[in-house]
Design brief:
about 100 residues, 2 domains, three-stranded antiparallel β-sheet, two-stranded antiparallel sheet
């Protein structure tokens, strides 16, 4: 199986091996075992390493996204969600800020 990765090394998909040489952006090295909850594979040039991933994902590697709030958010601020792979922003809170909602 060829495991493909993006320009920055992030796993993108897998396809059966074709004839000929392996593509430059693919490796046959086994992917890390599932589940990939909270992490995502990245090819570092030698091995697949797992990096933080807080996005909502659907499909074979589905996961709920990690809701978070930033400094200055209030009790009625809707949760934020990551759209890119990586750690939550510095200072992110994973519990809703306390206090009375401003609208009620």
């Amino acid at each position: 199986m060829n495991h493909y990765f993006t320009e920055d090394g992030l796993y993108s998909h897998s396809l059966p091996e074709g004839k000929g040489r392996i593509p430059r952006n693919a490796r046959r090295a086994s992917l890390p075992a599932d589940p990939w909850t909270g992490v995502w594979p990245r090819w570092n040039g030698k091995v697949w390493e797992m990096i933080e991933d807080h996005r909502k994902r659907d499909g074979a590697h589905a996961q709920e996204g990690t809701p978070y709030w930033l400094a200055g958010d209030t009790a009625d601020t809707p949760p934020r969600y990551m759209t890119t792979i990586g750690p939550l922003p510095e200072g992110a809170l994973t519990t809703r800020p306390e206090g009375e909602p401003e609208n009620g």
